[in-house]
Write a structure and sequence with these properties.
Layout (H helix, E strand, L loop, with lengths): L20 H14 L12 H8 L3 H14 L2 E4 L3 E4 L10 H4 L3 E2 L12 H11 L15 H15 L6 E6 L2 H13 L4 E6 L3 H8 L3 E8 L2 E2 L10 E3 L14 H14 L2 E5 L15 H4 L5 E6 L11 E6 H9 L7 H12 L2 H24 L6 E3 L6 E5 L6 H10 L2 E2 L1 E2 L13 E5 L5 H17 L9
Parallel strand pairs: 3-14, 5-6, 5-8, 8-9, 9-10
Antiparallel strand pairs: 1-2, 4-11, 6-7, 10-11, 12-13, 13-16, 15-16
Helix pairs in contact: 1-3, 2-3, 5-12, 6-12, 13-15
């Protein structure tokens, strides 16, 4: 039986230095491989052994190995261990030329832990139902509407008395129906700024969008534009800054809706993965139920490819909306989602994703919170975070440098309304990434920040 070679290369890791331990370890092992101190095809010590010899955590050793693996210095053999790669006459190609792109511009759920068995069973049983001869109810199957109501009550604490739940093929359909019913063919919409670009684009196709400024506490309810028909806010987790609307501003929204006759519209997915110890009352519970609405889907929990969304509409608008509703989702989709909701599958998936995202947020905070001239926002809830940069470091320069390392991030400027002075920062969406890809992206980001003369605080 062949045993891994004893590590004969002197490795000295300096605690308290600016450079993280995994960077020091990866750098020293890399130099040992290039110099021939670690021979080609020789077996590397296990991460557990290496951690014990050096007196470090196994996570540090694992992170260093992952980096060398991605750079092509070592390779893993299933069931056999980790080995030094054969060297050719040319040095290993730069990571930017060999590694796949890691895209942090995406905002989609993790595929890890997807309830595939329950998903298949729900669709299989849905396919056994005979299609109704008289067609589907315009607003969706009653059982599905009741299941969505129960889900929103459990997940968000929403009491939807005074509202109706309607089912639509997509979120854009739900927005169109609501805005047309409230504001006519060209409604005036005040949208919290900054906000997700896809939400602004969807609203911009339906009416005139005006920016509603926000600060560290969320939307500025004292700056609602005059004569707008609808105010769109994200009170539980204003994206991309992760702000949370305080109670007094929620009451201000309720007063505005009462006094103006306007509609407060809230995305129902807002705050879904937010575990706050002090829950605040949802806006619909503070305002007249005739003046609040929600729009959502299950793309954040299950899959963006599921063509089924919903709207929670005031009863004063429900009759008008049902008269102009398009054909709804197929009955098979409605039956399958009904079962996934009533069986508890969706709530279990929310809990599983919440745990996954908490672990990923911890990695993001560990990597980025120690830069004294930056601010990391939104990294305690959800699956996105924003890194605000000093004016001396343009976000466009950081984005370009990361792109050269095959890491894609979005500028904060893309989240602002045209004409609004944008913040200087980058937005990271990491919910869909596996641990290795996230670590690689964060390593590239810390290297890029270092090249822009941003240094981490020295550990105590």
């Amino acid at each position: 039986m062949r045993h891994p070679q004893r590590l004969s290369v002197p490795v000295h890791l300096e605690r308290g230095l600016i450079e993280p331990l995994q960077d020091q370890l990866a750098g020293q092992l890399r130099r040992a491989i290039v110099r021939g101190q670690l021979a080609p095809r020789s077996r590397m010590p296990s991460t557990r052994t290496l951690a014990g010899v050096l007196g470090i955590s196994r996570g540090v050793a694992l992170a260093a190995y992952e980096r060398l693996l991605a750079e092509g210095y070592i390779t893993g053999r299933h069931g056999s261990g980790t080995y030094v790669c054969e060297r050719t006459s040319a040095p290993p190609r730069p990571a930017a030329a060999t590694e796949p792109v890691v895209d942090l511009r995406l905002d989609r759920p993790s595929s890890h832990g997807f309830p595939l068995a329950a998903w298949r069973a729900a669709w299989r049983r849905a396919g056994l139902h005979r299609p109704p001869l008289g067609g589907l109810p315009a607003a969706g199957l009653p059982a599905l509407r009741a299941a969505i109501t129960a889900h929103l009550q459990d997940a968000r604490g929403l009491d939807l008395d005074g509202h109706e739940v309607i089912v639509t093929p997509g979120r854009a359909d739900a927005l169109r129906l609501l805005l047309r019913a409230q504001g006519g063919p060209d409604p005036v919409i005040a949208l919290e700024d900054p906000a997700p670009p896809e939400l602004r684009d969807a609203l911009g196709r339906l009416g005139t969008v005006l920016p509603l400024p926000s600060d560290g506490s969320g939307a500025r309810t004292d700056r609602i534009p005059a004569a707008c028909d609808v105010v769109v806010v994200l009170p539980e987790r204003g994206g991309p800054l992760g702000t949370r609307l305080p109670l007094e501003r929620r009451r201000d929204l309720a007063r505005w809706a009462h006094d103006s006759g306007g509609l407060v519209l809230e995305p129902a997915f807002d705050g879904l993965f937010t575990a706050e110890p002090d829950p605040l009352p949802p806006v619909p519970s503070l305002a007249d139920p005739w003046s609040t609405a929600l729009v959502g889907s299950f793309s954040e929990v299950l899959t963006p490819t599921l063509r089924l969304a919903f709207a929670v509409v005031p009863r004063r608008l429900a009759g008008e909306i049902e008269q102009v509703m398009p054909a709804g989702p197929a009955i098979t989709a409605q039956l399958a989602v009904t079962e996934l909701l009533t069986s508890g599958c969706v709530s279990e998936r929310v809990a599983g994703l919440s745990a996954q995202y908490a672990a990923k947020r911890a990695l993001v905070r560990q990597a980025l919170e120690a830069y004294p001239h930056t601010r990391l926002l939104g990294a305690h809830t959800g699956a996105t975070a924003t890194l605000l940069l000093p004016e001396s470091v343009p976000a466009a320069s950081v984005v370009a440098a990361l792109r050269a390392r095959r890491i894609q991030v979005a500028e904060l400027a893309a989240y602002h309304h045209p004409g609004v002075r944008p913040g200087n920062g980058i937005v990271l969406g990491f919910g869909h990434l596996d641990g290795m890809s996230l670590r690689r992206a964060l390593h590239a980001l810390t290297r890029t920040l270092g090249e822009h003369r941003l240094t981490r605080r020295t550990a105590a």
